[in-house]
Each structure stands twice: as C-alpha cells, then as structure tokens.
Amino acid sequence: MTKTLKQLIQAIDTLKIVGDEQVTISGITCDSREASQGALFIAVKGVAVDAHRFIPDVIAKGAAAIVCQDLPDEQPQGVTFVQVADSQIALAKLASEWFDRPSEKLKLVGVTGTNGKTTTATLLYEMAQLMGYKAGLLSTVQNIIDKKVIPAKQTTPDHITLNSMLHDMVMAGCDYAFMEVSSHACSQHRIDGLTFKGGIFTNLTRDHLDYHKTVENYIEAKKMFFDALPATAFALVNIDDKVGQVMVQNTKASKYTYSLRSIADFKGKMLEDRIDGTLLEINGKEIEVMFTGRFNAYNLLSVYGASTLLGFPEDELLVKMSLLKPVAGRFQTMRSPRGYTAIVDYAHTPDALVNVLNAISEVLNGKGDIITVCGCGGDRDKGKRPIMAREAATRSDKVILTSDNPRTEDPEAILRDMQAGINSYQSTKVVKITDRRQAIATACMLAKAGDVVLVAGKGHEDYQEINGVKHHFDDREVIQEIFKNEKL
Fold it and tell me: What is the chain's mean pLDDT, rounded?
C-alpha cells in the first residue's frame, strides 16, 4: 500500500510544510526502529522519551517525510517536514487515514471505566457472534478478528496497531467491533480519529494514579472519550456510580442509563445469587445467567443495554444472554475435590477487590470462610497498597499477602506497604508469604469444605514479572495442580 503525503495530511491540521507534499509514502511509524525507505515518521513527545531526537536516525534510514512539533535545525533535501501543534493527535488521525478510516466501516463501541471493561467488551463481542454477526474485540485479555485470536499486549493498542486491527476486521467482513478504552489511551489521544457508534461507562474508582497523579485527572481522561462522541452515537452510563452523569454532561451523543438501584432506561434487580450463577430481572423480565455478584449484574445490564441500542432484538437477547460465560480470569470458579471453591479474579484495585469479596460473602451468607490471596504490582500506584490489604482483611476470614508482579521493586517492600494498612485486630488473621505459588498452596491447605479461596490480582495473566523479566505463572494452572494432588 502506498499513498501520497498530501492524501494523508488532509486528515490533520498543519502549521508548516517544508518540502514536496506529493512524495509517495510506503508506510507510517512512530517507532524509529521500524522506519524504512519511503516511510512517514511521526515524532511523538512521549512520557519517557521525546522521539524528535530520533529524526536524524530515520532520515538516515530513508524516511520520506517527518511529522513533528518542533522542526529540526537540519532539514536535508528530499525529505518533507510537516509541523503540527500536537504530534500525538496527528499520529492518531494519520493512522486512521493510512488504513482508509476503518472505524467508519464498523459499528464500533468503546467501554471505559475502572472495573468491568474486559467483561463488558468481551460479552458484547460474544453477543454479536451469537446473534450471527461477525465481530472484532480489542481487550486486555485478547484481541479477536472475527474468530482469529491475537494476544493482547496492552489494554488499548497504540495508534497504528489499533487502526491496523480495525482495518483487518473490515477486511474479515466484521460488522461490529468492541474495545476497551483505557484512561491512558484517552490522555495519549490513541482513540482520536476513530468514529464510535457508542460508548459505555462502567464505574470509576482509584486506579492508575501513578500516571494521572490525581483522581480529577483520571476522571477527566475518561470523560474525554464521551466528550468526543458524535451526535450519531449513544452514551450508556451506570448512574449508580456518582461519576456516571459527570461523564456525559458535555457529550453530543444520545444519553442512556442503567442501574440496579434507580429508575433507568435499563433497570436490573438481583432475585437470586449463587456461586455458579444469578437469577436477574432486567426491565421486568427474568433471566438466569452464569455469573455471580452485583458487579457482574452491572456488567450484564450494560451488555443488555448496549445490545438493545445496537438494534439486537430484545426477546432474543435474553435467550442469548443465558448462554454467555464468564471471561477468563474474571470470577473464574474451580471446585476442589475436597469440597471448597477456588476463585481466580483480576481484581487489582481496592474497589474491584471489595466487589468480589462482597459477592462471595453474599453467596456464602456465613456458611463458610473466605480465604483471600492477594498482592500489589510493583512500579505502580503505591497509595492503593495499604487500602487493598485493609479491604481484604475487613472482608475475609484469613488473608495471605503475597507477590503479584513486583516488576523492578523489592517484593518485601511492596508487602510492607500493604501491611501498613492492617490494624492490630486484623493482624491476627493476616500472614505474609512472598512466594505466590506457596501462598496459593497454603490457602488451599487451610480451606475446608464449603469455604472459598479467592486468588486475586492476576486473573488471566500467565506470567509473573520479576526484575523486568516475565516468568510463566498462571494462578489457574497452580490451583489445578493443587486439585490433582488432592485427588491422590
């Protein structure tokens, strides 16, 4: 594929152009290592690195054009320079233009919020498939183009990868695409240039403050998504969350609401809750689902609401929803030969942990103990560590603090930060086992028939990152190994 620079830059606002606009472009990149003969290089000022310093390198590799915020002192002949006010925004729009604006050819729905993004986006993808449509998915767990699975490296891919995947979905004949929209993606303008059919807000609690610094900045990043939605889109929000109405106060999209507590467009009620499912009422109609907990009831309400707004037949929706299964690593239950239940969940924020523990507590109703294994990731928001430990201890009968992904931090230091949230009364039921495998094994050993062991924090992840190196580690595999030994 080739295009002229003039064709591409019609999508962006330019300040100055130096050189030939008719030059042929053979590819676009924001990574200097991937630059090649005839490429268009977009120099982005990132959080850690300013790519402007790599301009001489990409010119040496034969780049045909450079998009940048600051024009370099040296501007060799044969290279066209395009100056813009913000190269992040330019990158997003150029990526969309390069791949022939793929989002315009799909019904694209974005899901944002602190918790529930993966479940909601994945279930919408599953729903579209069950309805007989081809669909695509961009999520934390995996990316899917129709039925082809591609491992996910981050919640929302970079600008070019994102548009490339959407283009592949169009080529595969997909009608719909569902994607998680992270706060990082919003603030870094990764979704600029995309045309959305709808946006969903799940909830908002403390997360990513290592990046956003304040809760206000975090809220504003999420709100950017709804501010940019067109009048032709829908905005579906959880009004039981106090930030729900804030998200859509400036949107041009048509506003819709869902709730378990208030009058809403999509109103739900939990009639029965068990460890293996829930009897729900949605807009006056009963449905049996294979999900547990109030937080999952919210996820299913948003799926029902969005599916209705996309035009899926309502009566058929309820039938299909009963077929949906939990997403990998999200309240994933496993039954021990000894009669206790192990649950693996991605809960890695205080609110997510509270949601899962409350769901387990409501189902057990005092007829079994909750044994929680949890940790906190390294090189991330340190402020949530004592909160996570305190919430675990408040809502569990026993707690084992352990390693998550320590990354470049000392695991013992992370656990000390967590222990700071434990009071003297709670300390009697909290132990520290740094080795995660040993921690899970200990929790299972302590469990009796009727108890629940919650292993929180990593969910679907199949690795543990220690000193910057990823080692294979899957909570689910570890638990299955323990169950096999219990049979012996």
Answer: 93
Q: Can you give the chain as a three-state secondary structure string?
A: CCEEHHHHHCCCCCCEEECCCCCEECEEECCHHHCCCCEEEECCECCCCEHHHHHHHHHHCCCCEEEECCCCCCCCCCCEEEECCCHHHHHHHHHHHHCCCHHHHCEEEEEECCCCHHHHHHHHHHHHHHCCCCEEEECCCEEEECCEEEECCCCCCCHHHHHHHHHHHHHCCCCEEEEECCHHHHHCCCCCCCCCCEEEECCCCCCCHHHHCCHHHHHHHHHHHHHCCCCCCEEEEECCCCCHHHHCCCCCCEEEEEECCCCCCEEEEEEEEECCEEEEEECCEEEEECCCCHHHHHHHHHHHHHHHHCCCCHHHHHHHHCCCCCCCCCCEEEECCCCCEEEEECCCCHHHHHHHHHHHHHHHCCCCCEEEEECCCCCCCCCHHHHHHHHHHHHCCEEEECCCCCECCCHHHHHHHHHCCCCCCHHHHEEECCCHHHHHHHHHHHCCCCCEEEEECCCCCCEEEECCEEEECCHHHHHHHHHHHHHC
289-330 pLDDT per residue, tens: 999 999 999 999 999 999 999 999 988 999 999 999 998 899
pLDDT of residue 155: 62
Q: Which amino acid would we find at residue 360?
A: I
Distance CA 263, CA 199 (A): 20
Give me the pLDDT at residue 209, please: 47
- Contact 439/373 with Cβ under 8 angstroms? yes
Average pLDDT over residues 142-155: 87
pLDDT tens digits for 78-87? 999 999 999 9
pLDDT tens digits along 208-232: 444 445 677 778 888 999 999 999 9
pLDDT at 309: 98
Q: Hey, what are 316's tokens? A: 């058929």
Q: Could you tell me the pTM of the whole model? A: 0.85
Q: Please tell me the distance from the alpha carbon of residue 447 to that of residue 341, in angstroms, as a whole number.
A: 9
